[in-house]
Amino acid sequence: MIEALKDDTVINALGGRFKFTSLVQHRMRELMDGARPLVERNGRNDFEIAVAEIVDGLITYELSEDAGDDA
Questions:
Q1: Lower Cβ count inside 10 Å, N or C end of the chain?
Q2: Which residues have CB under 8 Å from 38's CB, separation 6+?
Q3: Which pLDDT belongs to residue 1?
Q4: 67 pLDDT band (50/70/90 cuts)?
Q5: Residue 25, number of CB atoms within 10 A of its CB
Q6: Which sign does the torsion angle of CA 19, 54, 66, 33 carry?
């Protein structure tokens, strides 16, 4: 288990587990599609890289202004 996930501080800062999980999933897909990691890989898998980037504040969750509008 990744040590940073034992404390809910990062998860709560993003707005909860759903947003955290969504952000991890989105970033993992980017990494699998060839995006460069923003931290050193050091033998870590894509999940660990995505979590490390989020914990370090390199990746954040942002909604567009029109995301909540009903069309």
A1: C
A2: 53, 56, 58, 59
A3: 46
A4: low
A5: 12
A6: negative
> Whole-structure pTM over 0.90, yes or no?
no
In a domain, 34, yes or no: yes
**Domain assignment of residue 60, yes or no:** no
Residue whose entry in the numeric block shows the structure tokens 């909604």: 63
**For 29-59, what is each residue's pLDDT tens digit?**
999 999 999 999 999 999 999 999 999 999 9
Buried b (16+ CB within 10 A) or exposed e, 36-67: ebeeeeeeeebebbbbbbbbeeebeeeeeeee
Nearest to 59 by CA among 12, 9, 14: 14
Q: By residue range, what is the domain housing residue 46?
A: 3-55
Q: How many domains does the chain have?
A: 1
